[in-house]
Amino acid sequence: MIQTLEWTDNGVRFIDQTKLPTKETYVTCETHEQVADVIRTMVVRGAPAIGVAAAMGIALGVKNSKAETVADLKRELDQICDIIGKTRPTAVNLFWAIRRMQEKFERVRIRPLAQIKQDLIEESKRMYAEDIAANQAMGRHGATLMPSEGGVLTHCNAGALATAGYGTALGVIRAAVEQGKKIHVYADETRPFLQGSRLTAWELMKDGIPTTVISDNMAGAVMKQGKIGAIVVGADRIAANGDVANKIGTYTVAILAKEHGIPFYVAAPISTVDLECPDGGSIPIEQRNAKEITHIAGRQMTPEGVSIENPAFDVTPAKYVTAIITERGIARAPYEESLHSLASTETKVEV
Ligand code: MRU
Questions:
Q1: Ligand 1 centroid from CA 238, angstroms
Q2: pTM for this one?
């Protein structure tokens, strides 16, 4: 089983995703600053994993606190949340996790300090378990949409490595395979960080799911050849109208899907739905370091001084999205209504 991150007695332990697929190494963070750093540097990445990492980072910071009063602990909690909240702006799960830890604090602040700390640790562990359960539920809903055999294309990594476990888009694929569907995954390489070729291919091969890596610019050609029966991707933030922010290049894939008449599915937990964002235009898009584009494996690939753009995400308009698969069920257009109704459903996924 892939252990993306876990709470341990020594701190929060992460598989180092910057070293995969050639090295399986682990990093243990002993402070919340270190957790913020591993989120920023993409040792851990993927919206749901970032959310759980943030919650555990906050729990760690609170555990390490020397505060002697609840008021002081609250001040420190705010500072910790501030540091963690400045790491990656697009994945809304980060802010969802911060809010949930803050709300937990408010509910337990009347308790003794040691108990408050324990309660926050337990809350972060609960979020971890809930994420895996949500992915399994998404898998059950989404598997029904997958073809009984043939190619399914995915972009970036929305797998076990991007979550507490099992994955969102790859969870749907895993569930379909568990049901006996004969799926062959086409994994877009996903320039510039190569989450598809490095991470998606690595985890699918571990599970024995047939996988072919293609360069991003091959997606249209494989669709035209009739090799792709469905597309399933994850999301970093879904606006109230169903516009989807996901890894740069997702928008291109969605348009190609439309042109070729292939269903384009998004799998994401309800925590990725941001009803406060009316549409994709209000989703902040993270700009990353130019070096991710200019250099490959340490070697410079562009002339010195050339101008570079490196947005980590793009927005796919809702009109290209066939359905959004969540742990509470499948949302279809009009998304204003379907997402709102799923988000306000009381039912929680059983852990
Ligand atoms: O920059 P990353 O690697 O954090 O981007 C990840 C993605 O875009 C994923 O598709 C998204 O977070 C969903 S992960 C279940």
A1: 13
A2: 0.97
